[in-house]
Amino acid sequence: MIEIVSHQQRPMAPSAQPIVYVVDDDDAVLGSLRFLLETDGFAVRTFRNATALLNATNPPGADCYVIDYKMPDINGIELAGRLRQSDGDTPVILITGYPDGNISARAAAAGVKDVILKPLLDENLVKRIRHAIQNRRGN
To answer: Which long-range contacts (CB under 8 A, 24 or more apart) does 84-87 make?
Structure first.
C-alpha cells in the first residue's frame, strides 16, 4: 500500500519562482521538460514514476503538477486523484502520447483540467502551467 504524503503549501509571494513537479517514466521527456520549464523561469522537480512522487519526503509545495498518463506503476489519472486527496487545489496537467476518446472525461473526473498530447510539449504547456498557477493564486 502506498501512503500519500501530504504536500505542505509554501507561502508564495507574487515574485516567487513557481515550482513544477513533472512525473514521467521516460528520461528523455523528463530532461526536455526540465530544460523547457527551467528556461521559462520555473523551478522543476522530476520524478520517474508516481510512487517516487508519493513517497517523496518533505518536498516543497508544488505550484503545478505535470503528469504523464501512461506509467508502469500508477497511471496519471489515478495519481491525480490521489493528489487531490492531500493537495486538492494544486493544478494538474496530464500529458499523454496515448490519447483515447474518453481520456479528457476521465481526467476531468479526477480534477485534471488540461490534457496535452505528446510530443506537442512546448510553449503551449508553458502557457497552460502559467495560467493554472495564476488561477490558483487568484491573479
So the answer is: 84/110, 84/111, 85/4, 86/4, 86/5, 86/6, 86/7, 87/6, 87/7, 87/9, 87/61, 87/62
Task: Using the Cα atoms of residue 51, residue 1, residue 4 and residue 130 in order, give the sign of their dihedral.
Answer: positive
pTM of this structure: 0.84
Q: List the grid coordinates of 62.
A: 508544488
What does the pLDDT read at residue 68?
96
% of residues, the chain, pLDDT over 90:
54
Q: CA torsion angle for 108, 109, 110, 114 (degrees, to 10)? A: 0
Dist. CA 2–CA 12, nearest whole Å:
29
For residue 2, what pLDDT is reported?
A: 38
Q: Average pLDDT, whole number, for the chain?
A: 84
